[in-house]
Amino acid sequence: MNFSQKREDIDKLEKIHSNIGGMFENSYKKLDLHVTINGGLSIDELRKSINFHHFTNDSLLYIIKQINSNRCTYHDIGPFIEKDSGWYNIREKNIDVITMLTEENMRLKKELEEMIIERNKFKQHCEYFEKEMNALGEHLTQEYDC
User: Where are the beta strands (DSSP E) in 7-146?
Assistant: First the structure.
């Protein structure tokens, strides 16, 4: 390995550390759940589907390898295994996955219901303003004989 290769490796590692340096503790648990729920996705697909941190492919792969290599530090996260170009959380049992998926499904349903309520309120406001604008238009037409 020559000097320029070592420099590139150091630069790459610095970029990775800069990227993951902003991760909060709950991000690791979110990563664990995300890989569990989305098992089988490639690093690139996982990166694109994660919304709680802006990973690069290199930083996501690095943090996965760190979690796998340092089990005492990350004892309740992962480990993750790559199989057929997809990543899986191998710690979780099927019943745990079903429970997590059910909880996630319930959370998403609640979020959808809240969005539907907000949309309906918005529609009511729009209908009200449309009626008011029509009434104003009729009033102006009558008043100015247009």
Answer: 80-83, 86-89
Q: What is the pLDDT of residues 17-46, one digit of tens each?
A: 888 887 888 899 999 999 988 889 999 999
CB 56 within 8 A of CB 19: yes
- Can you tell me the distance from the alpha carbon of 60 to that of 45, in angstroms, rounded to the nearest whole number? 11
SS3 content of the chain, % helix, strand, coil (to 5): 70, 5, 25
**Signed CA dihedral, 104, 44, 88, 86: sign only:** positive
Q: What whole-number distance in Å separates Cα of residue 71 and Cα of residue 35?
A: 17
Closest CA to 113 of 101, 102, 105: 105
Distances (CA, A) of 54 to 17, 22, 30, 103, 110: 13, 10, 13, 24, 26
For position 136, what pLDDT does the model report? 83
